[in-house]
Every structure is written in C-alpha cells, then in structure tokens.
Amino acid sequence: MQHKVTLIPGDGIGPEIIEATKRVLDATGVKFEWDTVIVGQAAQDKFGAPLPDNVLESIKENKVALKGPVTTPIGTGFRSVNVALRQSLDLYACLRPCKTYPGSPTPFKNVDIVIVRENTEDLYSGIEFARGTKDADSLAKLILKSTKAKIKEDSGFSIKVISETASRRIVKFAFEYARANNRKKVTAGHKANILKFSDGIFLDAAREVAKKYPDIEFEDVVIDALCMRLVRTPGQYDVIVLPNLYGDIVSDLCAGLIGGLGLAPGANLGDNMAVFEPTHGSAPKYAGRNKVNPMAMMLSATMMLRHLNETKSANNLEKAIAAVIAEGKSVTYDLKTDRNQPAATTSEVTDAVIAKLKEVSRAPESN
Ligand code: NAD
Questions:
Q1: pTM for this model (two decimals)
Q2: Mutation to probe ligand 1, out of 82, 248, 254, 261 (largest number of atoms < 8 A from CB)
C-alpha cells in the first residue's frame, strides 16, 4: 500500500533533515506519495501568504503530514505558521515523547516521559494589543474601571485564554493515551495558585476528568515545582499534560534531559488529522551546513509510521536509530560529550541509520 502524505520541508535546517528522513523512510520499504508544499517566508514571497490555502487543503485531503521546522520572525512580521497550522486544523494535542536512548549524552539514564501539550489556546491564542494603540488604551481603561489596577502607559497586552472545553479535551486525550499505551500516571502542570481564572479552569478540568480514569494515577503540580522535580528526579514522571505555553517550555526541558533537541520528536494530532514534526526549530545558523542531527525528525517519522499502522517498519527504524546512538561513532556534534571530537555530518548519520536498518530488518527477532 502507498501512503499519500503532505510534505512540508520548512526552512532553515528543515529541508536537509526532511531529505535525510525521506531517505530512511525509503529504506524501510514503505511506499509514499509525497505532496510537497511550501510555507513560511518562501510562501509569503511566492503566494503572498505564509500559510497558503493549498497547504491546509492538502493536509485535509491526505490527513497526514510530515513537517520540517519553519522560522517565525521575532517581534515583527507574520505570526507563527506552526501555531496557525495547529489552530486552523484543530490539531489540539501535541504529543512529545522524551526517552533516553543508551549512549545519548545525558546523566539521566531512565527518562521515559510523554508530554501532552494543549495546542490551540492559552497565550498562543494570538490576541494581542500593541502598546500605544487605541485598543491598548481602551483595554487599560477597562481594566482600571473594573479592577482599579493602573496599567503603565507603555504597556502591551498578550491575552491568555483557557477554556474548560479545550482543557477537558486535552486532559481526556492524555488519559486515553496513557490507557492505550500502558502508562501508569498522568501529571497535570499548572499555575492555578496565581492564575486562578485561567489555569484554575485547567486544573479543575484535569481533576474532574481524572476521576473517570481510576486505573491511572493522577497528580497535579505547580509548574515551577514541576520543573525543579523534573530535573532532580525525572524517572518519577510518565505522562505530563500541560497548557500550551508550559507545554512548549517543558518540552524543551525534557529534550534537555534526554540529550538535546536533536533527539526530541513530536506530533500534532486532531480527531482525524496528524502533522509530525520535531520539537526543535529551524536553527537558521546551521542551515545548509550538513551538520545538524536528523534523528528528531526521523523519530517523528517513526511516530508517523505507527500512526499509519506500519508498526514493524516504525520499530525497525527506531531500533536502527537507537543502534547508531549506542555505537556513538556516526553521530552529529550535539551527541558528542566532548564537542572537540570529530562528529558525523547529517548525511553520514543518515547512511549509518540506513545501514543499521538493513541489519535490524534481517534480524530474525525483528517483528
Ligand atoms: P531551535 O530549536 O531552532 O534551535 C536552538 C538550538 O538548538 C540551535 O541553535 C542548535 O544549537 C540546537 N538544535 C536545534 N535543532 C537541532 C538539531 N536537529 N541538531 C542539533 N542541534 C539542534 O530554536 P530557536 O533558535 O529558538 O528557533 C529558531 C527558529 O525556529 C525560530 O524562528 C523559531 O520561531 C522557529 N521554531 C519553529 C518550530 C517549528 O517549526 N515547529 C519550533 C520551534 C522554533
């Protein structure tokens, strides 16, 4: 069977890690028909929009996309294509497994955490009021009138929106994921002690939903304490469900625990669509240098293969990547404990994964 998949190479390091990932996917023997589309600055220049309609149409039709990272201009310019894509397609759950592979450069040897990040609201709702505008002034006046709080005139506003509907939906997703994947515990991170009317809703929803899953342990933890505990005793965490911004930050924290962003895959999932992409961004300073680690992108592809029920190929590809990490010879600079040691290039890592894939596919126990 041939899978039709939307391919978004992205920019920065995106095109080279997507190319590497296509090569290893080819080597699994699974057949793909790629519908390649462009987004970001290139699409802005060509079509006048950073996320053109044809991209959304392609994903709606194919239901699955493999995506490289896309640069977002800082402070000015167009809003994030990544956020817009998740919101436009209601890809409400961002799933980011963080697992230590033997041989990866980290003192934490037994991390196996799955981050479930709410993907559609919170401070990413895109509701902002620039300082010095009429709207910002009206908002400051409204706040003064209703709360007596005096806002400094040179303030801007970014609005945090948390709904019960989205909170319940993401917590339910986390518990269903835990149940389906034989996970034992769900931890909800929040700051409801301070943000009573936003994180308070998330926390209440989490506690309510948790009651329906008595077979799975539940705990809630204030986000700052959670960050500290994650660094001290990461082994005690299993599935962690978080509102959007904390989910973004804790994903990178957990990537750090397992040896860096080069090993952290991800998926954005809706009820009937899925976009697979690594946690990391477009690392523009490394673009075109054949230097970065393609493994986070490749591991995102293993998640895609599982989603497409190509389980055997997914397992083989993950085993091949793990074997290359364990051997420690053909790995990029980020997986070297001593950065002065010679490191493999992106394409050499890809060659090594393909060679291992041939070995694991031949091994009798691979199934
Ligand atoms: P980044 O993840 O791109 O890079 C941070 C650093 O992490 C890099 O400088 C590099 O040292 C390291 N790194 C990242 N990926 C690596 C890899 N595969 N191998 C080895 N090292 C790697 O984060 P940033 O610099 O904050 O963001 C750059 C751009 O990417 C920004 O425009 C940002 O908005 C965008 N971004 C996009 C996505 C996405 O497309 N989903 C996600 C995050 C950031």
A1: 0.96
A2: 261
